[in-house]
Structures are given as C-alpha cells and as structure tokens.
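Hello forum,

I keep getting stuck at the same step: I have a sequence, I want structure tokens, and every attempt I make locally crashes halfway through. Rather than fight my setup again tonight, could one of you with a working pipeline run this one for me? It's a single chain of 84 residues.
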Amino acid sequence: MTVSGPLYRKRCARDEVVAVDVAPDDGLNHGFVSWPVAPVRGEQLIRLNMGGSASVTIRLTDGSRIQVVVHDETEAQRIAAAVG
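Reply #2:
Ran it on my machine without issues. Output:
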C-alpha cells in the first residue's frame, strides 16, 4: 500500500499493518505546522488532513501510525476495509 500527500509518500507491505481504526475527527491540523501532511508533536504519528469529519488510523509494526482525515465515516470505513 502507498499513502501519499503533498511532499509525503510512505509505502507499507500489508504484513506491516497491525491495526486499522476509524474514528470521528474534528478536521483540524494538530501538528506544529498548518500543512495537509504533518507530524503530530510528541507522537509517532503522521497526519494527512484532507478535511472532513472522520479519520482512518493505520498502526504499523514499528509502532508508527499514519492517520488520514477524510470526508465522512462512510469513506473512512471503505478505506479501512481496503487496508485491513
């Protein structure tokens, strides 16, 4: 699988995915920069914020996480099903 956004690309094999979670989201940037792709301070988390009300968080075997904010929960569920 490849996750990409502006100036960011991460490739992961399916066996690197430990968990996939869907949750409501406020759609705000929680990093120290206001950019669609940003690390979240104090966490091993890269947040790709495309705007919306739901997020998909992918946890990898190395302990890092990738979170993608999408339009709504239906879209988030569809992505989660495809990933996990």
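Helices lie at 73-83. If your local run keeps crashing, start a new thread with the error log.
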